[in-house]
Write a structure and sequence with these properties.
single chain, four-stranded antiparallel sheet, Rossmann fold, 9 helices, globular, alpha/beta, six-stranded mixed sheet
C-alpha cells in the first residue's frame, strides 16, 4: 500500500435544481454532474485543499457547507464545473477516473449503502473479486481487512444481523480489501454508541493510509486528524493544525460551529482539559 497525496484546486460545483442530495451507488458510478443547464447556487465556489501523503485531515463545516459534496468530488461521484483534482500524480478526468479510484476507498455515511450481499465476507470480497484476483488472493485480502477492523469472527454473518458499530467496521473493511492509498469517510461516527465510537477512533488513528474525514464530530476530528479544514461560503475558510483551527473561537463562530466538547471547562470544577 502506498499512501497518496491529494490536491483540489479552485473547485466549483452546483447541483442541478432540486437535486441537492445524491443516492449512493455501490458500483461507484458518477451520480451527479456539475455541468447541467439549470443549477442551484454553487455549493462549492473556489474550494482548494492540499493533503500530504499519510496525513489525516478532518473536513468540517456547518450543515450545507459542502462537506459531503467535496468528498463526492474527491471520489469521482460528482464532476466539478471548474477546478481540478489530483490523486497522487493522476489528474482526475473521465479517462483517468478508473485509475484514480483504484487509489482511493470511499466509505459512505450509511453503511447499508455499502453492504448489499448475503454475508460480511462476500461484501468485503466484492471489490477484489471484481478486480480479477484469484480465490486465494481474495481470501487473503478479506481476512486481512477483517482483522484490521477487528471483526474476523463476523465473516459469515449477514449484514442485517450486525449492530451499527459492526456495520461501520464492515463497511470500512470493504474498501480496505482493495488496498487503497487514500481512505475517504463521510460522517463515520454517525449513530455510533460511545464504545463503538472509541473503537472507530482507535482504528482510524492507526491506519497508514491518507485519511480524509467529513464530520460534525469535532472531537473525533481532534482525536484522529492532525489537520482540519473548515468549509464556509463555498470555500476552505481555514486549514491547518487541528488544535489551532478548532481552538479559534472567532473562526468557529463565523462558520456556524460550536467548539469541541473537549475544549470546554468542566461544569463541576471549572478546569479545562
Amino acid at each position: 500500500m502506498t499512501a497518496y497525496g491529494l490536491e483540489l484546486d479552485s473547485i466549483v460545483f452546483a447541483y442541478p435544481d432540486g437535486e441537492r442530495k445524491t443516492t449512493a451507488s455501490p458500483s461507484g458510478d458518477r451520480l451527479a454532474g456539475g455541468g447541467a443547464d439549470t443549477q442551484s447556487p454553487p455549493v462549492l465556489d473556489g474550494a482548494s485543499l492540499g493533503v500530504a501523503p499519510g496525513a489525516k485531515v478532518g473536513i468540517l463545516g456547518a450543515n450545507g457547507s459542502g462537506k459531503s459534496t467535496l468528498l463526492g468530488i474527491i471520489a469521482g461521484l460528482h464532476e466539478p464545473r471548474a477546478g481540478t483534482v489530483r490523486v497522487g500524480d493522476i489528474l482526475v478526468a473521465k479517462k483517468t477516473l478508473k485509475a484514480a479510484r483504484l487509489r482511493l476507498g470511499f466509505v459512505f455515511q450509511d453503511p447499508d449503502d455499502q453492504l448489499f450481499t448475503g454475508s460480511v465476507y462476500d461484501d468485503v470480497a466484492f471489490g477484489p473479486r471484481n478486480a480479477g484476483l484469484s480465490d486465494a488472493e481474495v481470501r487473503e485480502r478479506v481476512e486481512s481487512a477483517l482483522a484490521t477492523v477487528g471483526i474476523p469472527e463476523l465473516a459469515e454473518r449477514p449484514p442485517f444481523r450486525l449492530s451499527g458499530g459492526e456495520k461501520r467496521m464492515a463497511a470500512i473493511a470493504t474498501v480496505l480489501s482493495m488496498d487503497p492509498g487514500i481512505l475517504v469517510l463521510d460522517e463515520p461516527s454517525a449513530a455510533l454508541d460511545p464504545k463503538a465510537r472509541r473503537r472507530l477512533i482507535r482504528l482510524l488513528s492507526g491506519l497508514p493510509q491518507t485519511v480524509v474525514i467529513a464530520t460534525h464530530d469535532l472531537d473525533l476530528a481532534l482525536d484522529v486528524c492532525g489537520r482540519a479544514a473548515i468549509l464556509h461560503a463555498g470555500r476552505v475558510e481555514a486549514y491547518g493544525d487541528s488544535r489551532a483551527v478548532l481552538g479559534d473561537a472567532a473562526l468557529l463562530e463565523r462558520c456556524g460551529l460550536e467548539p469541541p466538547l473537549s475544549s470546554g471547562s468542566c461544569a463541576i470544577c471549572g478546569r479545562r482539559p
